[in-house]
Amino acid sequence: MKNLEIIIAGQRNTGKSSIMELIYRTLWVQGFDVVLNFDNDIDFKDESDFRRKTYDMREERLNVIKKEAKIIIKVLQSKCENN
After folding, report:
1. Cα separation of the two ends of the chain
2. Contacting residues for 68 by C-beta, under 8 A, at least 6 apart
3. Among candidates 68, 67, 62, which has minimal Cα distance to 26?
4. Which of 29, 44, 53, 73 has the fewest CB atoms nearer than 10 Å to its CB?
5. Which is nearest to 1 in space by CA: 24, 25, 35?
6. Are 52 and 44 contacting, i.e. CB atoms less than 8 angstroms apart?
């Protein structure tokens, strides 16, 4: 199976975790095999910690992001691995 990696990048307190949760939930509901990766993350220990912390005030947090942030989506092509 091939991997498609989605990276959420931005400055501190710009809503990265809320957007990550929104993308995760949307993909999971649609039946995608999606994994949350918390390697080197300073805010969350694991998936249950992430869900617990991002569940509170979810809609309010997303509404703030809608008003205060512009989301830029771009594609980066990675090199093919030799198999």
Report:
1. 13
2. 14, 15
3. 62
4. 73
5. 35
6. no
Residue 59's domain spans which residues? Answer: 1-83
Note the residue count of the chain.
83
Radius of gyration for the chain, computed over Cα atoms and rounded to the nearest angstrom: 14
Q: Residues 18-69: pLDDT tens digits?
A: 999 999 999 999 999 999 988 878 888 888 888 888 877 788 889 999 999 9
Q: Say how far apart CA 65 and CA 13 lie, in whole Å.
A: 10
- Concatenated DSSP letters of 55-70: HTTHHHHHHHHHHH--
Residue with tokens 């095999």: 33
Hey, what's the torsion of the CAs at 15, 20, 22, 25, to 10 degrees? -160
Looking at the 3D structure of the chain, how many domains does it have?
1
Alpha-carbon 79 to chain mean position: 23
